Amino acid sequence: MSTLQIHNVPDDLYQRIQVMANAKNRSLNAQVIDLLSQAIEIEESRIKQMKVLNSIQGRRFKAPENAPPSSDLLLEDRER
Questions:
Q1: Could you tell me if residue 18 is inside a domain?
Q2: pLDDT, tens digit, for every residue of 3-60?
Q3: How many CB atoms within 10 Å of residue 69?
């Protein structure tokens, strides 16, 4: 396993992580690893969602090639 050192952690953040770790009977190290894992999963999920939304938006506003004008389609629909 790799080692990660974090310097200049604000005291209030350190205390908050320590409280969370104690509440879950974990070491500070285990709690930080869990928080980092959660943050990465959330970020990866957000990136996937953005890709899907961009894909949908790209298809949504793109008219098909050789599509008849919408006015012709409306007239055709009204004549049925």
A1: yes
A2: 999 999 999 999 999 999 999 999 999 999 999 999 999 999 999 999 999 988 877 7
A3: 9
Q: How far apart are CA 5 and CA 48, in angstroms?
A: 29
Q: Is residue 39 part of a domain?
A: yes
Query: In terms of Cα–Cα distance, which of 15, 21, 49 is closest to 35?
Result: 21
- Among 67, 65, 48, smallest CA distance to 56 is for 48
Lookup: tokens for 47: 């990136």
The total domain count for the chain is 1
Domain that holds residue 45: 11-78
4 lies in a domain?
A: no
Give the chain's length. Answer: 80
Residue matched to tokens 């050192």: 5
Indicate whether 5 belongs to any domain.
Answer: no
pTM recorded for the entire structure: 0.67
